[in-house]
Amino acid sequence: MGIRFDPTSKTLTLTTRSSAYQMQIGPLGHLLHLYYGPLASDCFSYLYLPRDVGFSPNPAALREGRGWSLDTQPQEYSAALCGDYRLSSLEFTTEAGLRGADLRCLRHTISPGKYALPGLPCARGGADTWTLSVTLGDAATGVEVELLYGVYEAEDFITRCARIRNGGGVPMQLQKAASLCLDLPFGDWELLHFFGSHTMERQPERVPVAWAVQTVASRRGFSSHQQNPFVVLCAPDATEQIGDCYGVMPIWSGSHETSVERSQTGSVRLVSGIGSADFSWQLLPGETFQTPETLLCYSAEGLTGLSQSFHRFLRAHVARQGAYDRPRPVLLNSWEASYFDFDHDSILRLARDARDLGVELLVLDDGWFGDRDDDRRALGDWFANPRKLPGGLGPLIRDIRALGLDFGLWVEPEMLSEDSALYRAHPDWALTVPGREPTVGRDQLVLDLGREEVRDWLYETFFALLREHPISYIKWDANRQLSDLYSRALPPERQGETGHRYLLGLYALLERLCTEFPDVLFEGCAGGGGRFDAGMLPYFPQIWCSDNTDPVSRLAIQRGTSFGYPPVAMACHVSASPNHQTGRSSPLGTRGVVAMTGAFGYELDPAALSEAEREEVKRQITRYRELEPLLRCGDYYRLDPTAALPLAAWQFVSPDRRETLLSLVLTGAPPGPIPLYLRLRGLDPAASYRLIWMARYGCPDSAVDFPERWSGAALLHGGLVLPPMPGDYPSAQLLFRTDP
Ligand code: DGJ
Is the pLDDT of residue 640 over 90? Predict the structure, then answer.
């Protein structure tokens, strides 16, 4: 069993296939965190023997010897104002003016299966999942904290969240409620996080954990392009292949906050959860507040091991059920082909051209509704634009389906334009502050999804759209973040709940629509990758990775995204050259190689391609179909070739290790005579691999004198030298297989 309580040492130990996580009920009942790391069956209390540390105060009952302090003991869920000066997990004020909490264990239970979180996305349980619940209480205020742990033995995952209950007699305002606190005894860690911007999301930065507080956060109401909520604590010597790494991933799409502090004793504390900056929540006596869930994974197998564990876990337990069991359609999206400028006939022509290339799904992007001719109006008016589509959506969808294509549609339900019938009818449905000019983003406002009538209206509107028309795919966009956090439906003391209620409302709406339309593929988008997080995956198994479709930029964006999220969750399209965002020109083949990392599609007008390019697109689609199961189910490796080469390379390996795809792109000219040298990963050293095909793009396709066969050991340890690839951004794909 994955959870054990030892009554003698008063330890609670969670074990997975290769990790152990240990807590102990301390001398006064505090829940202490003793250990998280490689599998071990010891009691780790010896790491925290009492010792007198100046200016670290003691609980009155343990004043003798001055050795025991909440400030130096490792906490499972820290709270302020009771002697622990490090990061707190919980902050509140009761109506009686009491703050802080001295949390002591009241009870715990161990049960088979996984706890549920009604109203919040969370990991689904599996055959070997166990739940631990530990309830802590503060006597002075009556506040109780139930800590919930889900233990996934085979997958090496632990989930955590907290339920705060006002067990006192007066109302209280919750100001901070983290999902987890993790104390590590030693401080030599590095923090790997993923920063960015619109069109350049999830760029990795690895910095030493400082003797200070470092915070990765978003107060934008969205998980954001700027700071992704996924973080890793890794040993300074951890590489892709080996070393201690802890991954922390909230299943949450709103404002978030993960802080790391190296304390005076050198220990490190990480506290992660919803963003506390603009948050408060009123709890009346007897009420509870449920925090979102956070995933925890320890890996001794470096960053690749950690990434692959997250990929498998998210695919199996978090992403929309069954979504990764079937092949993804190859789609063509109209956005970069025609932007707002189209009509029935031009979209039909686009669909016909796409069909002739082998595309399966035509997606009509922004501009099809209300009087939407630019991005300044009509959001909220979800009826067909009478000028562009005089017959409505019905005839267009019918004509497209008659071509043998499926139809997909872009929507942006969470937003509204001031210039819209919806805003004119319901100005109070927008998040705006009374007496203050609203902040507009892309000229639009945000609907107050915390309000039931707003959600109901959205549900009815999109239910009708999907019921009326055979739409098999929806691209759900959101092109601004939250700022004017004021809800016309909440009393003053609850205004701090507005941003959080927005997210709960969004999840509720998505849950209803996904349940009602199980066969519709919903793709998430927030101006590209502004909400690429584990909270979205239960509804959106694929997410538009970035509005930047330039293949060279995408190499960095997709690589950064892959640290936490499975490639199959990234929507990746081939677009026109020169690229519309960067102006850079690149070979069509290279754009295909880069897009064949995730859910593949096109974002261009086939009519603008030459005959030779159209033939190349047909070959690309055939290749993608051949590779699709491997891209969807395979293990993903970031290859880091020698730093002397401007070479990006990555590899997919089938779960049985019999097939592998190596993809690479040269982002510059190799300096001098350095050969294109790479070592592969993840193969069976004893197996014999044959090159099934090699395709090179953007460079001469000269003959290559490769051996007939390679052993796995040769590819892993000896490596592979590729022929020179002169040209601008040339690329290659090599597919190897063992004999059947
Ligand atoms: C932002 C998206 O990321 C784009 O792909 C496109 O759908 C536009 N919005 C449409 O307004």
Answer: no
